[in-house]
Amino acid sequence: MLKKAVDRAIIKIGENFILKKGAAEMPKELWQLLGLYLLAVNLAAFLLMGVDKGRARKGQWRISEKELFLPALLGGAPGGTLGMKVFHHKTRHWYFRWGFPLLAALQIGLAAWSMFT
Question: Which of 11-15, 45-49, 60-64 bottoms out in mean pLDDT, i.e. has the lowest?
């Protein structure tokens, strides 16, 4: 049921931008759903960094780098960047050290641009 609601919301958001109605004309409910999605994906990215760091310390099975990057690519780069800094995890890998903050800057810039246009 939740998946259907999210799918409908994504389609509706896409329709608004394809029809060039702009962000200002998006219904309040879609903004709320988008905000909840972004909160969830950022929290997931943050928590994945913490879980993987804990597993690394214990010498346990690790979360793949692809799985760590996926939430960041789906809008959770700010949360992943914060998790990387808080847990001091993956800071030696250039693609995390530069990739996460770059994605975060792009995502925050896109969000700001969409709100003010």
Answer: 11-15
pTM, rounded to two decimals: 0.74
In the numeric block, the tokens 């389609």 are attached to 11
Determine the 3-state secondary structure of 112 from DSSP.
helix
User: Tokens for 72?
Assistant: 């960041």
Residues 45, 54: Cα–Cα separation, whole Å: 14
pLDDT above 90 for 71? yes
pLDDT of residue 20: 52
Tell me the three state secondary structure of residue 26.
coil
- Give the single-character DSSP code of 74: I
Contact 84, 96 (CB under 8 A): yes
**Distance set, CA 30 to CA 8, 37, 92 (Å):** 10, 10, 38
